[in-house]
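Office hours follow-up: a student asked to see two folded examples consecutively, so here they are.
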Amino acid sequence: MKKLFILLLPAMLGGCSYYHTVYNSVMDKMNTDTLEYQCDEQPLSVTHNSNRDEVSFLYNDKELRLKQGISASGARYSDGIYVFWSKGDTATVWRQDSIVLHNCQLQNGES
């Protein structure tokens, strides 16, 4: 019986690992919203993951993943180069100290 247990142990542990991976994936999807903005320069589709406290979006054919930071007002996300800042139904994107996407208005009525 001990030999059977020892042989089955890796399979049982592997099942636990698989369940954990699937669970995290499902939770990520449940806690993810897609926000559609119309900026002066172009449309902007932002994925907000509240589980990870991050947003992601494409800018200049590059996927950006920005972590939430401290903000006195609204929500601020940054990777050290880019900043996505939103408040209510508006958002702005900076690259270093220059605004690259102006007057972004939420299109799907979420905030």
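And the second, which I mentioned at the end of office hours:
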Amino acid sequence: MMNADQMLDAKGLACPMPIIRTRKAMQELAAGQVLEVHATDKGAKSDLAAWAKSGGHRLLEDREEDGVLKFWIQKG
């Protein structure tokens, strides 16, 4: 289990809301801190990976548990 500095619950939100909420939450973190994101929108898997890469962040891990996609993104 990864440790996160902050957790974002984006379950039940459709694209592009998980990305918008993730971007807002990342602005509150310092470089190197980790945001854990929970989403149910299947598109979030590719969207968050692409967003993290384009924003200079690192997607440390992603997995699915009971229909919930979980992401750990380190702020760049």
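Two things to take away from it. The beta strands are 6-10, 34-39, 58-65, 68-74. Residues 17-27 form the longest helix (11 residues).
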